[in-house]
Write a structure and sequence with these properties.
Low-confidence stretches: none
Number of helices: 12
InterPro entries: Inosine/uridine_hydrolase_dom, IUNH, Ribo_hydro-like
Enzyme class: hydrolase
EC number: 3.2.2.-
Structural class: alpha/beta
Keywords: Glycosidase, Hydrolase
GO molecular function: hydrolase activity, acting on glycosyl bonds
Strand content: 15-25%
Number of strands: 13
Radius of gyration: 18 Å
Order of helices and strands: EHEHEHHEHEHHEHEHHEEHEEEEH
């Protein structure tokens, strides 16, 4: 069983990723930390608690609230995509539990250092908490097995022509993360826009069980979809964790633009010349979309 920590900004696709992870028999979610991103951190924290409550996991998995804004750049949310609550489409009751008293960074540090084995970090929102952790507590680095991060793109962005949302939200934190010397897998738009959940998949999960109905309703409310389907960006990180063979990755050195019109761009040294052949990330470039859809249906079918 792989120990993971999810750092998220739920968000519809974060919620779906969290739902899959906490119900997966081969994943041990040690901690959930929240960050400002899709909506403000008070809302992302409540949304994480709502998902844990829905699946009866509240109290078993601690939730720690994190950064309220990026390190330097002004905060811009994505409520236009996810709704004002961040998780529109389903009427969740008020969470029965509250976040723990520790801040996200303190909880991350304590959980990672207390673990007898290295832990995998799965950031699916902006990387502010991760950047703060690595800057303030560099001793955690050897205790992090790898970082499987949703974000970035080798091509066109979804916030600007150059930048993907998570990296655009806090490019300075992204730069800290990519320069930390920790193994990173970049699951960006190059992969997630290939692995759309099809209308057929959504119709199937709606009739599977209570969890499928909830996920169908929030995913169908996502403001960024087409007739071909909807991109569940963050769920791709969990799919990669369990089925890396279904995702094509290429080693690159990734730099982050932190200023100017291309702020938030993930720049790959594709020729290997600028960094003399060194690499700092495995970058997802292709995915078996059919396998992703089949896997997602199977995950939902197994939820209680």
């Amino acid at each position: 069983m792989e120990k993971i920590i999810i750092d998220a900004d739920p968000g519809i696709d974060d919620a779906a990723a969290l739902a899959v992870a906490i119900n997966h028999p081969e994943l041990d979610v040690q901690l959930v930390t929240t960050v400002a991103g899709n909506v403000t951190v008070d809302k992302t924290t409540q949304n994480a608690l709502k998902i844990l409550d829905f699946f009866g996991k509240a109290g078993n998995i601690p939730v720690a609230a994190g950064a309220t804004q990026p390190l330097i750049k002004p905060f811009e949310d994505a409520a236009r995509i996810h709704g004002e609550s961040g998780m529109r489409g389903y009427d969740f009751p008020t969470p029965k539990t509250a976040p723990i008293a520790k801040t996200a960074v303190t909880a991350l540090y304590d959980t990672i250092m207390a673990s007898p084995e290295p832990i995998t970090l799965v950031p699916t929102g902006s990387y502010t908490n991760i950047g703060l952790l690595l800057a303030q507590y560099p001793a955690v680095k050897p205790k992090i097995k790898k970082i499987v991060a949703m974000g970035g793109t080798l091509g066109k962005g979804n916030m600007t022509s150059a930048a993907e949302f998570n990296v655009f939200t806090d490019p300075d934190a992204a730069k800290i993360m990519y320069q930390a010397g920790i193994p990173i897998v970049m699951i960006g738009l190059d992969v997630t826009l290939q692995a759309l959940l099809t209308p057929e998949t959504l119709a199937t999960i709606k009739n599977l069980n209570r969890a499928g109905e909830m996920l169908h309703d929030i995913i169908s409310s996502d403001g960024d979809q087409s007739t071909a389907g909807v991109a569940m960006h963050d769920v791709n990180t969990i799919f990669y964790l369990r089925h890396p063979e279904a995702v094509t990755t290429v080693p690159y050195w990734i730099d982050i633009q932190t200023t100017g019109p291309a702020i938030g761009e993930t720049v790959a040294d594709v020729r290997g010349a600028y960094h003399q052949g060194q690499t700092n990330a495995l970058v997802g470039t292709a995915i078996d979309a059919a396998a992703f859809n089949q896997w997602f249906i199977a995950q939902v079918r197994g939820m209680k």
